[in-house]
Specification:
The chain has 288 residues and is mostly beta strands. A hairpin with a 2-residue loop joins strand 21 and strand 22. About 10% of the residues have low confidence.
C-alpha cells in the first residue's frame, strides 16, 4: 500500500473510532444526572437545582465495553480489567480523572457495600482491596460489581458491570453498625418514574454531632440498589439546601425514581476524617 493511501486509511479509521466513541450513550455528569450545572459552595460541589440522578443497568445502555473481575482466593480483594469490543484491556491513560479518581468501583452483597478506587498497572489491570469493614463479615459468593469512568478521548462516561464470585467462607459475622446513621426526613410519596428529593438527617449512634467533610469533592455520595434482584444502580450527589452544616446535618439527593420495588440507599460520607456508609431502605410504589 502506498504511503499516502496508508495514511488516509489510518486517518479514516481513527475518525470512525472517534465518532463511535462520541455516539455512545451520553449519560452526563459521570452518568449521574440528566443535565449538569454543578453548584460550588466554599469549594464543595453540589448538583444543580434541576439535576436528578437516574437508575441505570449498564448492560442495557449498550456501551462497547465489558468488565472482568478476578477475585483473590483469600477474600482480601481482586483485580479487574475494562475490555473494549475486541476484548482488549483499555489502557490506564484513557481513564480521565472524574471526581478526583480515574476509576470508581462499587461492590455490593447483601448489607455490605463499598466504593473503591483500584490502582492501575500499565497492562490495563487494576488492583483493589476490600475495605476493613468487610473483614470477618464477607462470606464470599457472588457480588454485584459496577464501574464508571470518563473516557479521556470522548469525555463520555462509561458504565460496565459484572457479577464475580469469591470462594465461600462459613462462620462470617453480621455487618457492623455504621458509625453514622441516616434517617429519611418526612414521608415523601415515592412513585416509580417520578422525581423525588430524598432528604436525609445524619447523626451518630451516641447522639453526637456529625461533622461532614468533603469526600471525592462532595459532602457525600449515595448509591441506590434494588433489594428485589433488579440489576443496576443510581449514583447520586447531594443538592445544596443550606442544611448541610450544624449539629444534625441534612443531605438532599434528587433522583428519578426507578421501577416499583424495595431499594437500599447507601450514603457515603466523611465524618470528621472517618469515612462511613449509612444504609437507608426505601420502597417505591407502582403508578396508580
Amino acid at each position: 500500500m502506498k504511503p499516502l493511501a496508508q495514511g488516509l486509511l489510518i486517518t479514516g479509521l481513527a475518525g470512525l473510532a472517534y465518532l463511535g466513541l462520541r455516539a455512545m450513550p451520553d449519560t452526563h455528569c459521570s452518568f449521574l444526572h440528566a443535565s449538569h450545572e454543578p453548584v460550588l459552595v466554599e469549594g464543595v460541589a453540589f448538583c444543580g437545582e434541576d439535576e436528578e440522578a437516574n437508575f441505570y443497568d449498564p448492560a442495557a445502555l449498550g456501551f462497547p465495553f465489558s468488565l472482568r473481575v478476578e477475585p483473590s482466593r483469600d477474600l482480601s480483594g481482586g483485580t479487574l480489567r475494562v475490555l473494549d469490543e475486541a476484548k482488549r484491556p483499555v489502557p490506564p491513560h484513557l481513564f480521565a480523572v472524574s471526581h478526583t479518581r480515574q476509576l470508581h468501583l462499587h461492590l455490593r452483597q447483601g448489607a455490605l457495600y463499598a466504593h473503591l478506587h483500584p490502582e492501575p498497572s500499565p497492562d490495563g489491570t487494576w488492583t483493589f482491596r476490600l475495605p476493613p469493614e468487610w473483614d470477618g463479615r464477607f462470606p464470599g459468593g457472588e457480588v454485584e460489581a459496577y464501574v464508571d469512568f470518563q473516557h479521556a478521548r470522548s469525555r463520555r462516561t462509561i458504565l460496565a458491570s459484572a457479577r464475580p464470585s469469591w470462594p465461600a467462607v462459613a462462620g462470617r459475622a453480621a455487618p457492623p453498625v455504621s458509625p453514622v446513621l441516616a434517617r429519611l426526613v418526612g414521608a415523601p410519596a415515592l412513585v416509580e418514574g417520578e422525581s423525588a428529593t430524598l432528604a436525609l438527617r445524619l447523626s451518630r449512634p451516641d447522639g453526637g454531632a456529625v461533622e461532614l467533610r468533603p469526600v471525592m469533592g462532595a459532602l457525600g455520595h449515595a448509591v441506590l440498589f434494588s433489594e428485589d434482584g433488579r440489576p443496576g444502580y443510581a449514583h447520586i450527589h447531594p443538592s445544596f439546601t443550606g442544611r448541610e452544616r450544624g449539629p444534625v446535618p441534612e443531605l438532599a439527593f434528587r433522583l428519578r425514581l426507578p421501577p416499583a420495588g424495595r431499594y437500599v440507599l447507601h450514603v457515603h460520607v466523611d465524618d470528621a476524617g472517618r469515612e462511613a456508609y449509612a444504609p437507608v431502605r426505601i420502597e417505591v410504589a407502582a403508578r396508580p
